[in-house]
UniProtKB/TrEMBL annotation:
Gene3D superfamilies: Ankyrin repeat-containing domain, Vaccinia Virus protein VP39. One of its GO terms (cellular component) is nucleus. Keywords: ANK repeat, Cytoplasm, Methyltransferase, Nucleus, S-adenosyl-L-methionine, Transferase. ANK repeats lie at residues 79-111. Belongs to the class I-like SAM-binding methyltransferase superfamily. RMT2 methyltransferase family. Monomer. This is Arginine N-methyltransferase 2. SUPFAM superfamilies: Ankyrin repeat (SSF48403), S-adenosyl-L-methionine-dependent methyltransferases (SSF53335). Residues 165-405 form the RMT2 domain. It comes from the Eukaryota. Its EC number is 2.1.1.-. S-adenosyl-L-methionine-dependent protein-arginine N-methyltransferase that methylates the delta-nitrogen atom of arginine residues to form N5-methylarginine (type IV) in target proteins. Monomethylates ribosomal protein L12. Coiled coil: none annotated.
Length: 405
């Protein structure tokens, strides 16, 4: 596609905060109008003509400019809009297709962190949005096959491992960070790290309920279930799992403050609970995995993954290298907190689809449940929290099972 540096978007997972707000994300320099001294004047003229044509010209006009080499990566100074943003306002899917074929970047963000996809959504233009989303999936898959997503070989692709050394972006730093438990202004319990990032917040309880309902729903004998949960946090999901009386309930937790809290509140004494202290990587990768399987020889009926300050690559390692070996192959369900691209609807959709394709690669077939979460949009929920880790009205909840061929 193109080699110019464009806005760099980090897709974070697990409440890491390197999302899409330009004020807080590690954004590469966007090529905007104020960088004009770096752009040869003929190219600049073509770039500006393409913005105008995308905004109000004909499709042929846009095609002609692309044929002349007009750059699709240029974003104007006022709004930070690219040709794709202007085209998105016109509800012309074919125009979007033409620009994307001409090299426009599906996830270029404007000054407010919105992609052209958000413009389509705000206008109710589903067809236009799908054109952009599908291009995003194609382009991210291609980047993945070429090995470009986890390294930073191209600044235009989703960066699946956030380059953030703070507590919210680096698991090692987080695990040394002091945690505090308090009540938010919404009256709900929350746990914050030393930087004031929300590690887990009470507004998520209905979501956690939904995860358990969908993982365990329709199972006739919940008493017989073996469940594995990664990441205790506030223990919301573990309490819900306990109410289903599983025969085995393993909790893997790495943070010493959380472990101390669990001891102090009697979690270690819950029926059939076994707490594995340490990182999931220590217990579930390599030879130690065997020890966990000895606790449930047929594998686990439900596995849930919800950590903090880890990236998509960690989640991918989990579902590639752990899940297929320990999920009960007939009925077992794997689910995870889907915080992928959590502040931008288009990026949430594209990164969820990318995860789906990666799961298919290892024989996990995923179905998505669209869950509305109006609660997360309330202002008081986020008072006293450094940054929102979630900013969407809807959540794509994954339910994955091994494909039986
Ligand atoms: C978001 S909270 C989990 C919330 C939980 N689902 C609930 O319902 O309350 C994330 C938890 O994962 C733990 N954690 C982070 N990295 C981990 C790792 N690599 N292995 C195991 N636990 C980890 C954190 O200490 C934290 O307790």
């Amino acid at each position: 596609m193109l080699n110019q540096p464009i806005s760099l978007h980090s897709v974070s997972q697990y409440r890491s905060l390197l999302t899409l707000n330009p004020a807080s994300s590690p954004v590469n320099p966007v090529i905007m109008a104020d960088d004009t001294e770096e752009i040869p004047s003929e190219l600049l003229t073509l770039a500006q003509a393409l913005l105008v044509a995308s905004k109000s010209g004909s499709l042929q006009n846009v095609k002609d400019l692309l044929a002349q080499g007009a750059p699709t990566w240029y974003q104007d100074e006022d709004l930070g809009w690219s040709c794709l943003h202007y085209a998105a306002e016109r509800r012309m899917p074919e125009l979007l297709e033409t620009l994307l074929e001409g090299g426009a970047v599906w996830n270029a963000m404007d000054s407010w962190g919105r992609t052209a996809g958000e413009i389509c959504l705000s206008l109710g233009d589903r067809a236009g949005w799908e054109v952009i989303r599908n291009d995003g999936i194609r382009s991210e898959m291609l980047a993945h096959f070429l090995g470009g997503t986890s390294s930073s070989s191209s600044a235009t692709h989703l960066k699946l491992r956030a380059n953030d050394q703070s507590s919210a972006g680096n698991n090692e730093v987080f695990l040394k960070s002091k945690l505090t438990w308090d009540l938010g202004e919404d009256g709900k319990e929350r746990v914050l790290d030393a930087d004031g990032n929300g590690v887990m917040m009470g507004w998520e309880e209905p979501l956690m309920k939904q995860h358990v309902a969908l993982m365990i729903a329709g199972r006739p004998d919940t008493v017989g279930l073996a469940v594995l949960n990664i990441g205790f946090g506030l223990g919301i999901i573990d309490r819900i799992i306990q109410s289903e009386s599983p025969r085995l309930h393993i909790i893997v937790e790495a943070h010493s403050d959380v472990l101390a809290h669990m001891k102090a509140t009697g979690v270690y004494d819950w029926p059939n609970v076994k707490v594995l202290e340490g990182r999931w990587q220590d217990h579930l990768i390599g030879k130690n995995l065997k020890r966990v399987l000895e606790l449930s020889a047929d594998g686990f009926d439900a596995i849930f993954m919800d950590t903090f300050a880890e990236g998509y690559e960690d989640l991918k390692t989990f579902f590639e290298s752990v899940v297929p070996d320990i999920l009960e192959p007939q009925q077992g369900v794997f689910s995870f907190w889907n915080g992928l691209g959590a502040t931008n609807a288009t990026i949430h959709a594209v990164s969820s689809s990318l995860a789906e394709l990666h799961m298919e690669d290892v024989g996990l077939h995923v179905q998505w449940q669209d869950v509305p979460i109006a609660e997360s949009q309330r202002e008081e929920v986020w008072k006293g929290v450094r940054r929102r880790y979630w900013d969407l009205p809807g959540y794509k909840l994954p339910i994955a099972k091994m494909c039986m061929h």
